[in-house]
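Shall we go through a protein fold together, starting from nothing but its sequence? Label the sequence line and the structure token line clearly, so we can match residues to local backbone shapes. Would you write everything just below, so we can both look at the same thing?
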Amino acid sequence: MNITNYIQFDGDNLDTAKGAGLISTIDRDMDIKVVPFESDNEKAPTHRVYAKSPRGHDIEVGGIWKKENQDGKPYYTLSIRKLRYNANLGRFPGQDDASLQAIIEWEPRD
């Protein structure tokens, strides 16, 4: 299966799991890794998102935040600030592995 726009976490507890994935757009493919982030600030992200620079250095490019929907159920959002890329994390259709999360873009980039 050839999938794009995903994060494969190393466990089902997304709050504490590390992960790696891919974001593909019309003009780029970006391998990413996500690392849990702890903070006392309730508005801080749960994870920091890193991508590789052209010379292979890990560069922090964004974060993942845990939020609650109107029913009080948790969900996760991802933001890559330099690209103005925003997305939710969710499952692919027919997929039941909680550690594999689709990256579902929700706001167009300019």
